[in-house]
Specification:
The structure is a homodimer. The first copy, chain A, is of the alpha/beta class. Chain A folds into two domains: 73 residues, Winged helix-like DNA-binding domain superfamily/Winged helix DNA-binding domain (Arc Repressor Mutant, subunit A), CATH 1.10.10.10; 164 residues, Rossmann fold (3-Layer(aba) Sandwich). Helix content of chain A is 56%, strand content 8%. Chain A has 14 helices and five strands. The first copy, chain A, has a five-stranded parallel sheet with strand order 2-1-3-4-5, sandwiched between helices. The longest helix of chain A has 22 residues. The interface between A and B is large, with 86 and 87 residues.
DNA sequence: GGCTTTGGTGTAATTTAATTACATCAAATC
DNA sequence: GATTTGATGTAATTAAATTACACCAAAGCC
């Protein structure tokens, strides 16, 4: 276990002064590793030996050794804590927090996602006659992204963010068609309807949504992410990123399943974009 | 660049004694971080000040600081490397890899992003008469997402993924308008044109794109992410996620800048969605 | 309720480690 | 061959961390 987590975990077993030290370290871990024991003691408003004892309590040899461990924890990417943005955060603070909580969300998603279901979803997608991506609001952009990805596979794919179009599309679906419904909460009524309609018409419905939601109930296959969402800002952030990564995973599974030959086709699509771009060589700095 | 790589790279510029130090450190980096300067000097068969000078040469403040950096380099090695998906990866493997490389990309983005520029971008956005988000292809969904976010702020915001509409919109822009152009490569000709047109019409142009790209040259402000992209699959994945997180950050900065009163408005928008949803209580499991 | 003990905390002394200042030596240049 | 430059080590100095010890507060005991 890394030192940072260790501090968080054993916060209860700390004494009053030790907790002060812990707070300061957790608040500015980066500063800590560049401070002397005296500076840190002052920041936490405790004596130097208290800091030293704190270090020992965490199974390090002393303060310098503790800093070493801390440095490694920090290097390990992130203190994957889902830190919330606060009123008086400056640009550095909220930037760091958003990156970190997004990464924390992805980490959580990775651990929660069910590989079996992913595999079955890939199965279904590779055999689809037609693939439709539906999302509303914030999930609409995820659906768009999915369309963009699967479009490159030269598979019939559509994407609607309009309820009426979605409805018509769902009614016209038939066996062999795959409908992917995207919704973080899984409680958007219109989308639940769409899923139900599609199923009635024998399409396979994949839900990228919360497990145990109304939408999930309407789906053939549910890909749940269970991301701890920071709702402070009243906007879905982390969940949507996790959804995108999930789309990436499905797309990747798709290409792998289709084999080498197929991937050459992808390259062709990519090459076709070249004409619309400035060449890397053309543009010298 | 991490210290370990730095040592390897600059091995030529070292003096005889310094090289002895370098050799010892590279041979047992793990031991080094737990040794005193005296111990290391003895191992390398040089004097202590030589070791100190060696540390300074690598842009560290001294020996303890050097050890800190070294500790981080060592920790950095393993956890999230940008592991590439391979031909015969199963679902577990590619799922894990995609999550990890996305997280690695975010980590890299976090370290590269320029806070100053973010702050200025937020400045510009909060003062905008109108905000336009433009993207093409994969970046279109990012633009959509941005629109969705900023729309909630009750600010005039548009988003076009159609070149003609983008062009018309850019021509009609004027001072006080902000145009955000999104492109991973920054080499999409059409979007460069749009940026140029917008600027000619006195709009402020923010580019979410690669630093040093043709698009960047056309922008007032460039938010660069420098994400190591996995191009194996011929699709932008990680970069687009980083762009989204950047949008999240801008949106967050925006709300924070606007103050408490404004955030109540956000809650209203969120509450307004309630009617279109199944209530949490209505739906028991 | 007062006494004792235990655990936590700070002050000051001590020890250890790192850094600086300076002297010396080697190699390169004139 | 002399001089200068840069590299290195020795010794002194400074800074940092640790230890020893004293004190205080809270919990348990008589």
């Amino acid at each position: 276990m890394n030192v940072l987590e260790k501090i968080v975990n054993s916060v209860n077993s700390f004494s009053k002064s030790e907790r002060k030290v812990a707070d300061v370290i957790l608040a500015n871990p980066q500063t800590t590793i560049h401070s002397s024991i005296a500076a840190l003691a002052k920041m936490a408003d405790v004596s130097e030996p208290t800091v030293n004892r704190f270090c020992r309590r965490l199974d390090t040899k002393g303060f310098p050794d503790f800093k070493l461990h801390l440095a490694q924890s920090l290097a390990n990417g992130t203190p994957y804590v889902n830190r919330h943005v606060e009123e008086d955060d400056g640009p550095e603070a909220y930037t760091a927090k958003i990156f970190e909580s997004t990464m924390a969300a992805l980490d959580a998603a990775r651990q929660n996602v069910d590989i079996q279901t992913i595999n079955r979803a890939v199965d279904v997608l590779t055999q689809a006659k037609k693939i439709s991506f539906f999302g509303l609001g914030a999930s609409a952009s995820v659906a768009h992204d999915a369309q963009n990805k699967f479009f490159r596979f030269n598979v019939p794919v559509v994407c609607f963010d309009d309820i009426v179009m979605q409805r018509m599309s769902a009614i016209n679906s038939s066996e062999g068609d795959v409908v992917v419904c995207i919704s973080h909460t899984g409680r958007t009524k219109n989308l639940c309807d769409i899923a139900a309609i599609a199923r009635e018409n024998d399409a396979t419905v994949i839900g990228i949504t919360a497990y145990d939601s109304p939408l999930a109930k309407e789906c053939t296959l549910v890909l749940s992410l269970d991301v701890p969402e920071d709702t402070d800002m009243y906007m879905p952030m982390a969940s949507r990123v996790a959804q995108l990564v999930l789309i990436d995973i499905l797309a990747t599974g798709f290409t792998l399943r289709r084999g080498t030959k197929f991937r050459e086709n992808l390259k062709k699509v990519k090459d076709s974009l070249r004409g619309s771009r400035f060449d890397k060589k053309d543009f010298a700095g």
